[in-house]
Amino acid sequence: MTDTARSRAILSTASRLFAAKGYANATTSEIAREAGVAEGTLYHHFGSKDGIFLTLFDETLDGFLSGIEELLARKLTGRETLGALAHFWYDYVSRHQERFLILQRDFPAHLAVTHFAGGSPQRARLDRISALFSRALARGKADGTLHVPFPVRRTAEMLRGSFYGTTRLKMLGLIEAPFPELARMTEMYWLQALAPRRAAKTSRRRP
């Protein structure tokens, strides 16, 4: 087995065990045994169980960011881009449910403190989502297909927060709507909230 194959086996096994048992209950010895590697190999590749978790986070976010970049590269209006973002978000989550369950349910509090402060790679990935959402909103504001009454960046952060919140509730089993329906609902909500204002009707004066 090559180093790359060992690394992938460890990540795949850890993801499965974290999802099934919870991050706190899965041990490095169990992960190594089921991955078919020595426990020392696990530590060589990832340093610790926390290292595995952070790698899962980074890989999941990197794939997500790449997908948004590809979407933004398409020649769409701001409104079309925002709608496509909603569908891409929930489609991506639906295809990586195991990992999103782990990230939403089991995120270790100590990692949130040590690895998500300003300047950390993980924080940079989250900030990048807001930056990409800002580009979509700015496009709609420029082409007139979206009305963004608040600062674009703050609106993008609210948008990210709403997607994140519904994803968390979905992964915890608190939202019953299937992913495609959730995407349509989110798309409809945001497109209505940011719909361009209708031109004010000028009242005719009576002669």
Descriptive notes:
Helix content is 73%, strand content 0%. It is mainly α and 207 residues long. The chain folds into two domains: 1-47, Homeodomain-like (Arc Repressor Mutant, subunit A); 53-193, Tetracycline Repressor, domain 2 (Orthogonal Bundle). Helix 1 crosses helix 4, helix 1 crosses helix 6 and helix 4 runs antiparallel to helix 5 (78-95). It starts with a helix and ends in a 14-residue tail after the last helix. 27% of the residues are buried.
Shape label: elongated
How many structural units, i.e. domains?
2
Name the CATH homologous superfamily of the largest domain.
Tetracycline Repressor, domain 2
The level of helicity is over 70%
Percent of sequence in beta strands:
under 5%
Label the structural class. Answer: mainly alpha
Second-tier CATH architecture of the largest domain: Orthogonal Bundle
> So how many helices?
10
The N- to C-terminal Cα distance equals 90 Å
Unreliable stretches (pLDDT < 50, length at least 5) are 199-207
Largest sheet: none
N-to-C series of helices and strands: HHHHHHHHHH
CATH domain fold name of the largest domain: Tetracycline Repressor, domain 2
Total count of strands: 0
CATH class of the largest domain: Mainly Alpha
Radius of gyration: 21 Å
Q: For the residues shown, what is the average pLDDT? A: 92
